[in-house]
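Minutes, structural biology subgroup

Action item carried over from last meeting: produce the structure token record for Response regulator receiver protein (Deinococcus aerius). EB confirmed the sequence was re-checked against the source entry. Recorded below for completeness.
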Amino acid sequence: MRAPAADLRLLVVDDEEQILELLDLTLGLQGFRVVTARSGPDALAAAREATFDVIVMDVLMAPWDGFETVRRLQAELRAAMPPVVFLSGLNRPDHVPGLVTEYLVKPFRPSQLVESIRRVAAARN
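Output recorded by EB:
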């Protein structure tokens, strides 16, 4: 049984303001509770203040890329680390951090992102 979208709290991380706004709007319209962050350090600060069911993370960011951000989040959150859906304009690399259970290559359809979020959230339960 799937959790309703309204029961899922997402941390969405992207350093491009327009993409972040689009993801916030799109996922919010799907009923997800969305918190946004514009960088790895901002994501770490948000994760210290609240718990999340899924993290949606861009790969190419500064000052930390998505992989470094996940490493730092995992070091801090340990067992409380939620699954991660990576978004990237690049093909999936050979090695990604262990908690990355989905990797979507841009461009993707909003429905693909929603399904990935639901899939990783369901697999965690």
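Discussion: The chain has one domain: 5-124.
Next step: EB to file the record with the rest of the batch.
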